[in-house]
Amino acid sequence: MDDAVAESAQALRLGVRWHHGFAELGPSFSTELAPTPLAGPHLVSLNVPLARELGLDPALLASPPGVAAWTGNLPLEGSRPLASVYSGHQFGVWAGQLGDGRAILLGGIATPAGVQELQLKGAGRTPYSRMGDGRAVLRSSIREYLCSEAMQGLGIPTTRALVVTGSPQPVRREEVETAAVVTRVAPSFVRFGHFEHFAARGQEEPLRQLADYVIDTFYPECRAGARLAGNPYAALLEQVSERTAALVAQWQAAGFCHGVMNTDNMSILGLTIDYGPFQFLDAFVPDHICNHSDDTGRYAYNRQPNVAYWNLFCLGQALLPLIADQELALAALESYKTVFPRELEMRMRAKLGLGEEQPGDRELVEGILKLLAADRVDYPVFWRRLSRFVAGDGLDPVRDLFLDREGFDGWRLHYEARLPHDRQAASQGMLRTNPNYVLRNHLCELAIRQAKLGDFSEVEALLRLVQSPFEDHPGDDDKAGFPPDWAAHIEISCSS
């Protein structure tokens, strides 16, 4: 930290009321510790719209003391830094104790949208770092920062990102890179793995304490006696199953690949969490594997719905000591099988500009997906061009995406016969559903290359686009088009 900053402040005062509900669960759940400072911190990007949503002063956040605080070099007055312990299944195998190996929770702050927790990712070693260094690199921090805001822009439940700070301090991954810290924001960072941790150890009282905290804080409706035989823990499992089902349906409709859906990367609130080897599809390849570390394809795009259910089953096993009725636990999980297909069909109808469900809609959706897959058609470009076709633009830009034009023509005839009479209204809905701008891998890569040279302008430009992805941004048409050929060779792994 700069000497002048150190002399002028012992802690940064945000002027907010802090809440420490998770910390108050006690030492069985976390270890209190301070972040480890980084040398020469500097601001990479500040999410000004989010700062204002949280009721925070952007100028203060971007000031030298603010940059020091978001890097972990200066305490935030009223915060209570800690790293939480959890366990989990990784790539389908029980991994035992894990925990916040490089993330430090500062606590929750009162905002106009309710209490939001702040967490520093990359803030140094914790008791749960295992063999890790507790750091994040600039590359992965920029990816998470941009993608969490891209998901927010698309209306997909997600953790948020407030700030990215950088440091010249070296960090070794596949190569030597520079360190960074991303400040994450969410109502809670509790994961499926937090419950698995205590269940695996046979610690029923901490398990119950955690479940009661989550229910009372986030799911108070689970106390209502009418839900699942009046069992609040079964009701919690049902609610999480339904939120997860809706989330994954949104992923599938958007063409989003998470890349590493371990149980410790699943939010108990149904949020997208832990952005690592993610990718939005370019060509529509249903079995696409975005994670270079995923040798078996466990987390391929088309496997995500089943993996989510598998993870929920693990959560159900963890909650079973509290539910105390296996049949009731299975009934709670059944809601996933109802909600996921219903949500996915609804979202795919919206992408097609269709209203209330009618006979034949499922066949229309399945038909176009088969055509897209057969010709490996660019997924975002197709949907945006189809939206414009319905608005009155020419057909050729859509038709030319297909090698099997005859097959597309046959599908189109059925589609046009099904479109609502008011095609203008249908197209307006489609243009609000099918984004013009998607955070493709090559766009991230170009921003990262510039950032490594100290130029963060492309990070700022992408942030602006993904926060309003359905709009037209004059001068940025190239970012809405096809990826360059070299994009197919980008490899992202668990270090991403």
TrEMBL record:
The active site is at residue 264. Its EC number is 2.7.7.-, 2.7.7.108. InterPro entries: SelO. Mg(2+) binds at residues 265, 274. Signal peptide: none annotated. Its cofactor is Mg(2+); Mn(2+). Keywords: ATP-binding, Magnesium, Manganese, Metal-binding, Nucleotide-binding, Nucleotidyltransferase, Transferase. GO terms for molecular function: AMPylase activity; ATP binding; magnesium ion binding; manganese ion binding. It catalyses: L-seryl-[protein] + ATP = 3-O-(5'-adenylyl)-L-seryl-[protein] + diphosphate; L-seryl-[protein] + UTP = O-(5'-uridylyl)-L-seryl-[protein] + diphosphate; L-tyrosyl-[protein] + UTP = O-(5'-uridylyl)-L-tyrosyl-[protein] + diphosphate; L-threonyl-[protein] + ATP = 3-O-(5'-adenylyl)-L-threonyl-[protein] + diphosphate. ATP binds at residues 99, 101-102, 121, 133-134, 184, 191, 274. NCBIfam families: PRK00029.1 (NF000658). Belongs to the SELO family. Nucleotidyltransferase involved in the post-translational modification of proteins. It can catalyze the addition of adenosine monophosphate (AMP) or uridine monophosphate (UMP) to a protein, resulting in modifications known as AMPylation and UMPylation. HAMAP family: SelO. This is Protein nucleotidyltransferase YdiU. It comes from Ramlibacter monticola. The lineage of its organism: Bacteria, Pseudomonadati, Pseudomonadota, Betaproteobacteria, Burkholderiales. The gene is ydiU.
